[in-house]
What does this fold into?
Amino acid sequence: MFSLSSPHNHTPWCDGKSTAEEMVQSAIRHGFVSLGFSGHAKQDFDVFYAMDDSREAAYITEIRRLQSQYAGQIRIWLGMERDRYSTADRNNFEYVLGSVHYLPLPDGAMLPVDGPMDMIIPAIRDHFGGDGLAYAQAYYKRLGEYIKDYRPDIIGHFDLVMRNNRNGELFDPESPAYLMAATDAMDQAIMGCDVLEINTGGMARSGAPGPYPTRGLLDYWRQIGGQVIMAGDCHQARQIAHGYELAASMVRDAGFKKAAFLGRHDVLFEWVEVV
Ligand SMILES: [Zn+2]
Ligand SMILES: [Zn+2]
It folds into this structure.
């Protein structure tokens, strides 16, 4: 049995749709024992997608207020989702979710890997010789390096390049070269962080058939000694636990003996046996 919790939630201070308090109330209604906010940390590009200094200050004030107001009902954690290219200071937060959302292009642009295909396709054509696999390899190289060096508390949506590749539009996700790029990144990442999220946000927001990462990569993560935490990557309060049943069965089937959830007191992670 899993203790309901999620370390990955957004608010209107970045790109979330529901207020932080609506998210807390939804979590309580769903029986969550803890809830972590992970606003997109500030960055010098795509500024409306992330928090700037003033929005970060307002976010911190509001999450602190909710921590006090709902103490005794649910443990609320103040975190951030920090992209590799963010400039935010982790000392302002209780935990960090580390993610890669962008690839820097030679022309200076930042390509959002979860952006629309009418950005991705021309970028692959112009900067990766039309080779979608090379694009995926570039993503994994940056992800592995970032997690190893920055050492976040949790790794966000590991195979985000699958967001635009549901039907193999960009590369073959079963090909040995793709799997090698992803597993090499896992080998690097685990040196900096051993807690990987099972992220159901794509299921909630874009109809993905399952969470990040895919089952094959999850199996590899377990084999190298990695741990997991369930995460909603939630942008709307009513979707707070969307996809959790499927994600939980995937964790069980992959053979994990325990899973993390955000602690109910002062320790960041507690662990529950997976049965
Ligand atoms: Zn993200
Ligand atoms: Zn997110």
